[in-house]
Each structure stands twice: as C-alpha cells, then as structure tokens.
Design goal:
The protein is α/β, with parallel strands linked by helices. It is built from 15 helices and ten strands. The structure holds zinc ion.
Length: 405
C-alpha cells in the first residue's frame, strides 16, 4: 500500500487533469452549441455591410456560396444573419450628380435581390417590417447611404432618399463634404457640422432617417448630438480606448454622449479598428497599395500581404472584438452597443476566425464565455439598434405634425 500510494497519487492527479480538461472541452462545446442556437433563434442585425458597392464594382451571384465575398445568402444563413443594413456607398470624390447615379445603380442591384428571391430576401423600411420578415424566415435588407454628398445643396433630396428607403445616412466618408468634417481628412473647413449640415440633420429628423456619425470628426459628433432631436448612431465604429490616436474610433466621452441621447454604438469588426498594432500595420499596407496601384486581391497583392504578415500583426480576433463590446457596456451600458461589422468594406482586415457573415456564432460564444446572459446577447444582436431606429421614426412623426419652419 505504501509503495502504491505515490503511484495512485500520480494516477489520480493524471485522472483529475484529464477530467478537468474533458470538462473544459465539454463546457466550451456546450457554449458553442448554445451560441449557435441563439444565432438560429434570435434576430441578428448587422448595421453596416458593403455588399451593394462590392457587387456594383465586381458582379457576382450572391444567392450562391461565393468564393471570396464576406456576404452572400448562403453565408448569411450559416451565421444566422436576419437583417443587414445594405450600404449604398458613394465615394467622396464623386459630385452630387455622379453620386446619385451610382446610388440608383446600387439601389437597382439590391432591390433586384428582393425581386428575384422573394422566398429568401425582403426590403424593410422600419423595425416592424424587419420583425415581420424575420417571422417569415426572410433576410431583411434595409437600405442606407454612406456619405451624404449626393444630397448636394438640395435639401428636398433627403425626402427623395427617404422614399427610396434609406434607414440611415452616414454624414460623410473619407473627405469632409458640404455637411460636415471627416476624420480621415486633414482639411476640416467646418470645425464640425456646416450651416447646411445643420439643416440636413434637422431634415433627416423630420424624414425619420437615422444620423450616422461614423467617419465624422469629434466636433461633428458633438454638434450632431446637439442639433439632432432624435438619438444618433455610429453604424461601424469601435472604441478609441484600444487604439489611442485613431480618430476613426470613438472616444469614451463620445460613446457616453451617444448613449446619454439613447443612441447606439455598433462595433466595427475590422482588425484596424480593434487593435492598435493592426491599425498601424494596415495603414502601412494601405499606403503601399495606394502608392503602387497594386490591387489587394491580385496575386502580387496577396503575396506581398502574406510576406508582410509573417513579421507584422494584421489580424485581431474574436476576444478583442468582445473587449470592445465589454468596454461600451462598462462605460455606457448594455443597451448601447451592437454589431456593425463593415464586412465587404474592410478589405482583408477580417479578424482571425471571423472571416465573413457566417461568423456571428463565434462572437456570441465569446460573449457567453464572459458571462453575458441570453437577454443581454439579444440586445447586442439587434434589440438595441431596432430600439433606436424606432425612436428616430417616432420623433419624425412628432416633427411632421409641427408646422414647418
Ligand atoms: Zn465606412
């Protein structure tokens, strides 16, 4: 017995470790299964996916599993995606007329999917329609405009945009425009929102179109919050807390201010937004692609990136993404955060393990590991954004009853 004891001790230790490892594996498998079930059963909304512009510049059949798109109907089904704010992105370089032409062309492409696949896809103009589509098993594809430059100097075009179905307008993109200053532009003529931009925001309030401040400077956000009578949204911005100096992400002060006005911050998935090192390295890469004119999808581009990525971190991961969600929850609360992935608009910056719209269960699993309840997860998946959207529509009903001017 005496001689056996050490052996038994070692054996029981080995057994205990084996059991512990097994239970860890089982527990995590269980978490992944729960996450998948949540994604199957609950409404998932992503507030920013650039599939229309990508389709416009490079046609593909998104009803099938594609080779390299972040979004297609098959991947959306796998990920449990039920509502995708479909971004009609108009580059900052285009004038209003060219911008409107491009917008209408993308609009035809998007609505074409709802016409061709009525048993899979449907447009939606409000949260009620999103819910009704969800009940019928249809993917909602509400529309939105990224960059208000096609408005030109014509306020009446905002009503036309509302009639076309825009749920939100991102005020600006890579360059300051007639509405406000952009955080990607060193030229900032308005020190925030322009006088015309003030009118644009008021008219958007009246038309029930959400104001998206992603891409705007800090001053623009502060002023938009002051001018708007409705909550505002950041449809694809993450936390500057993790990327100091990267203005494209939101400071804690701005996140709190958006939340205080009952808005919502939709976290972008791009590694550039999630991790400072990735941000610096990606910026170097973008400059390289810009200056050489090489396309990132070309063989030369892919090879360059592969070599570069051996020594430079380019990809964040799901844990880092959930760090951003945690951060908003910590400083503002669970009611003010959601997913605004920017899939099909982030180039090759998807985090490891989150390559496309099939990835939401991976994020949900990470949230469950950190102790988020099912109810909290549902808020992040769609409830928060839908609440803000409905409130913006409610404000417009009140404003339209008031005499104009
Ligand atoms: Zn964007």
């Amino acid at each position: 017995m005496g001689k056996l004891l050490p052996f038994l001790t070692v054996l029981s230790f080995v057994f205990a470790v084996a059991c512990r490892n097994n239970s860890v594996v089982e527990t995590d498998t269980g978490i992944q299964e729960t996450a998948r079930k949540i994604c199957e059963e609950q409404l998932i909304l992503d507030s920013h996916i650039d599939w229309p512009e990508r389709l416009y510049s490079s046609p593909a059949d998104l009803s099938q599993l594609t080779e390299s798109r972040d979004f297609d109907l098959v991947r959306a089904k796998t990920g449990g995606l039920n509502a995708v704010l479909s971004v009609l992105y108009v580059p900052a370089e285009l004038g209003p007329e060219e911008g409107r032409f491009m917008l209408d062309s993308m609009l035809d492409l998007v609505t074409g999917y709802a016409v061709r696949y009525p048993d899979r896809v449907a447009l939606a103009r409000n949260p009620g329609e999103v819910a009704a589509n969800f009940a019928k098993g249809l993917l909602s594809i509400p529309l939105c405009l990224e960059n208000g430059s096609p408005i030109g100097d014509d306020l009446s075009y905002i009503e036309a945009l509302q009639k076309k179905g825009m749920a939100y307008i991102t005020l600006c993109h890579a360059k300051s425009n007639q509405i406000c200053d952009s955080n990607y532009d060193s030229i900032r003529p308005w020190k925030g929102v322009s006088p015309f931009g003030e009118e644009v925001i008021r008219e958007m309030n009246r038309q029930g179109i959400m104001i998206d401040i992603s891409h705007s400077t800090d001053s623009t956000v502060v002023q938009a919050l002051r001018i708007s009578e409705a909550p505002i949204v950041a449809t694809h911005s993450s936390c500057r807390h993790f990327t100091p100096g990267f203005e494209r992400n939101l400071s804690d002060t701005l996140i709190k201010a958006i939340a205080e006005k009952n808005g919502v911050v939709m976290i972008g998935f791009s590694s550039m937004f999630l991790d400072s090192t990735c941000s610096v390295n990606s910026e170097y890469l973008l400059n390289w692609f810009d200056s050489t004119g090489v396309a990132w999808e070309s063989q030369e581009g892919t090879e360059f990136m592969q070599t570069f990525s051996v020594t430079h971190k380019l990809r964040a991961d799901a844990a880092q993404l959930v760090d951003h969600i945690d951060h908003v929850v910590r400083i503002a609360g669970i009611d003010y955060v959601g997913f605004g992935s920017d899939f099909d608009g982030m180039g090759p910056s998807q985090p490891t393990g989150l390559p496309d719209v099939s990835s939401y269960p991976v994020v949900v699993a990470e949230m469950l590991r950190r102790g988020y309840s099912g109810e909290e997860v549902v808020k992040v998946l769609s409830k928060n954004f839908l609440r803000v959207w409905q409130e913006v529509l409610n404000v417009s009903i009140v404003l339209q009853k008031e005499p104009a001017g």
